[in-house]
Amino acid sequence: MKHKSTLTVAFLLLLSLVLGACQPVQAPAGESGAAQAKLILATTTSTQDSGLLDVILPDFEQQANADVGVVAVGTGQALQLGTDCNADVVLVHARAREDKFMADGDGSRREDVMFNDFVLLGPPSDPAGIAGMTDAAAAMTLVADSQSPFISRGDDSGTHTKEKSVWAAAGIEPAGDWYVAAGQGMGAVLTMANEQQAYTLSDRATYLARTLEGTDLVIAVEGDAALFNPYGVIVVNPEKCTNVNADLANQFVDWMISVPTQEMIAAFGQDEFGQSLFTPDSQPWRNQ
């Protein structure tokens, strides 16, 4: 009798375990339980290093029940990821290259998002004597003439593209021990320039974000119209890349250019710096 009771208890225990395993798993509070969609965003190091994406992306992920995988590289690499069908959407800042991306059929939709500007940074000692200038090409000429250390992104990024255009405007092909092509993102280049007390070109947002961590570099040249820095968002063409999640990519673009998201962009940096790190510039924002 004792043996039979033991078997009964064991059977009931086993049955409870089996039934428990068959119960549906409850989604955590605040989640629908539906599988999250995946979106691959190829973007620039400036949107990542400035901290902008950390602030705004959670809103999209919640609204769309999506997981956004961010690949932060230079603009050239980001566009190449789109060309190679390895991204759903790109967010970059090199308008001529964006237009070519569209003309080549690699993108199906492009929208203006925001802008800021580039600034020429240097050490407080200012060996090239360019502090306070507003002509970027003239300032770069003095940097080259004095052979003051200059750290270039050298990575085919939007920043590197802009730097090359300023050198071209100055009629200079930079070369020599004073000119270092780092092949790195903006954050790494700012670290190198600070360590070597060198000049470099940076987007304003990443530089200001870096000041929170501490840097000796100061803005030497700003305000030149040639240093304007617009950003665009592009859906990778699903007719060319059949693996692209076009519906979610278009939803992302709609969200990115919407007034509520543009308001988040306008507010980004205000508390820390008393100014926006990016200026919203989408068509819906301009149409208000």
Task: Give a quick rundown of the structure.
This protein has 288 residues and is α/β, with parallel strands linked by helices. It has helices at 2-21, 45-49, 52-64, 75-83, 95-103, 136-146, 158-170, 186-196, 204-211, 246-257, 259-267, 270-273, 283-286; strands spanning 37-44, 66-73, 89-92, 107-122, 150-152, 179-181, 200-203, 218-221, 228-236, 279-280. The chain has 13 helices and 10 strands.
Summarize this structure as a short list of keywords or feature phrases.
alpha/beta; 8-stranded mixed sheet; 44% helix; globular
In the predicted model, the low-confidence regions spanning at least 5 consecutive residues are: 1-32
Strand content: 15-25%
The beta-strand count equals 10
**In total, how many domains does the architecture comprise?**
2
The CATH architecture name of the largest domain reads 3-Layer(aba) Sandwich
Task: State the fourth-level CATH superfamily of the largest domain.
Answer: Periplasmic binding protein-like II
Instruction: Examine the coordinates and then state which fold CATH places here, giving the name of the CATH topology of the largest domain.
Output: D-Maltodextrin-Binding Protein, domain 2
User: What gross morphology would you assign?
Assistant: globular
CA-to-CA gap between the ends? 84 Å
Q: Summarize the main sheet.
A: 8 strands, mixed
State the share of residues found in helices, binned by percent: 40-55%
Rounded Rg: 25 Å
Class inferred from helices and paired strands:
alpha/beta
Mean pLDDT: 90
| Order of H and E elements | HEHHEHEHEHEHEHEHEEHHHEH
Tally of helical segments? 13
CATH class of the largest domain: Alpha Beta
